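Researcher: Here's a chain I'd like modeled. Treat it as a single chain, no partners, no ligands.
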Amino acid sequence: MATTTFSLTNEEAGRLSPASVELAPIERAALSLEAGRNFAEGIELMNRGEAKLAASSFEQALEHAPDFADGHVGLGIAYAIDCRVYRALDHFERAADLDPNNFYAHFKLSQFHFALRVPQKGYAEARRALACAATHEERRLVAQILHEERQREKSMVRRPWWNLPFTRPSLYVGAGLVACVCLLLVLHLR
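Model: Modeled as a single isolated chain. Structure tokens:
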């Protein structure tokens, strides 16, 4: 079974920080002091590479502020690093639902789908992340994961020709041949 790694870059950590200027004023006001403290602690633990402890800090933050989209993104990243795939996916999706304009919710969800080899959903989330991108750095991050995915697709094994769907004319010819063989068998058995 292949393992997948997920990383939290310094830019992403800055975006997820409750003290960040990029957080919406409404969200900052709605975030309790305790939730903010737990969230900051989770970011600090993630930066030290302690995903399990960070997950518990993010969980505590979400107990105080269950609709905190960045908290769900942080928890999704912690779960992904800790190989709790379904929980991570649930939290990334919850963050994207809570804040449809959250770049990192869509970006991490896209990255997650690409890692799970679900490219259709990955590309859809990448488009949403690109629509939410406010800075050149965010657009560069999306371009980077799209480039990596296209490179992976180029180097992967091609589908064999016998596994491709049949065209309509080839189905007609095949059905005609089967009908002829059946007719010959019926005539022969008489």
